[in-house]
Amino acid sequence: YFKAFTKQFTTGENYQGADRELQTVRQMMIDFLQNHSQEVRPPACPPLEPVWSSDITSLFDKNSHHYTAIVFESNSSYIGREVILDLIQYENILVRRALNSDKAFLEKLGVPSVPSCYLIQPNGSHGLINNLKPLRSFFSSYLKSLPGVRKKLLLPLQLPAPENKEESPETKVWKEFDKSKLYMADLESGLHFLLRVELATHKMLEGVELKTFKDFVTISAKV
Questions:
Q1: Which residues partner with 113 through β-bridges?
Q2: Do 83 and 19 have their domain in common?
Q3: I need a surface site. Which of 73, 75, 88, 190 has the fewest CB within 10 A?
Q4: Are residue 74 and residue 37 in the same domain, yes or no?
Q5: Among residues 7, 145, 17, 175, which one has the least CA distance to residue 69?
Q6: Segment holding 98, helix H or strand E
Q7: 98 exposed, middle or buried (CB, 10 Å; 0-12, 13-18, 19+)?
Q8: 76: closest CA among 139, 130, 142, 30?
Q9: 3-state class (DSSP) for residue 90
Q10: Strand 90-91 to strand 150-151: parallel, antiparallel, or no bridges (unpaired)?
Q11: At a CB cut-off of 8 Å and minimum separation 6, what does 67 contact?
Q12: pLDDT tens by residue, 73-96
């Protein structure tokens, strides 16, 4: 795990969970992200903390340019945070999570059980999304399908300005590359990464590690 804004060189921190199941690893990653964002929140990191009933009420009857979805869930649920992260690359929608601790508020909104997804439309109308299975995949798929909700466009790559033809009469033609072939540039890049980056994470090589490295250099020299 690599924390954002780390000022000192680090090779990352290793974490061992209770098991190696995908769900466990994903939840552990979400915990890291949420806890880290409380220290120094990276700009691209969405808020993962639950909102309160007063925050939700203030969103009602207000015209907006985007949808707001609130996932109501229990304290032990990760669905809300998973949906928030699923929709981070989409625009015209904001996703938040709220806990089911305020039973009276949930009853007022007509939320019979959790997890449930409540939607506030851009025109201010709001209501529970019915007929959705209480699963992350169903919540995320439904929200992505709303009219106007689409993936954010990445900024176009800024290409260098074309050279003056008078100064450079020859036009450079990019060579097509064959994905089935291995190029010298790939080998050089791999060797550079291994020797300058991966090897640099070891302060000292000795014993089996040193022998392995010597064998690697010998083979590299031969081929």
A1: none
A2: no
A3: 75
A4: no
A5: 145
A6: strand 93-99
A7: buried
A8: 30
A9: strand
A10: antiparallel
A11: 92, 93, 94, 119, 120, 121, 122, 143, 146, 148, 149
A12: 999 999 999 999 999 999 999 999
Cα 82 versus chain centre, distance: 10
Q: Tokens 């097509």 appear where?
A: 176
Query: Tell me: the pLDDT tens digits for 94-130?
Result: 999 999 999 999 999 999 999 999 999 998 899 999 9
Global confidence as pTM: 0.67
User: At CA 53, angle to CA 47 and CA 57, rounded to 5?
Assistant: 100
Record the tokens describing residue 167, joined without a space: 């100064």
**Contact (Cβ atoms closer than 8 angstroms) between residue 143 and residue 70:** no
Q: What is the CATH number of the domain that holds 118?
A: 3.40.30.10
* 92 and 62 within one domain: yes
Does some domain include residue 173?
no
> Is residue 116, in this structure, part of any structural domain at all?
yes
Nearest CA among 9, 2, 8, 4 for reference residue 200 = 9
**Nearest Cα to 34, choosing from 69, 88, 81?**
81
Do the domain assignments include residue 164? no
In a domain, 177, yes or no: no
Q: Which domain holds residue 53?
A: 46-151
Number of domains in the chain: 3
Q: Where are the alpha helices (DSSP H) in the chain?
A: 22-39, 53-57, 79-86, 103-109, 136-144, 184-193, 207-222
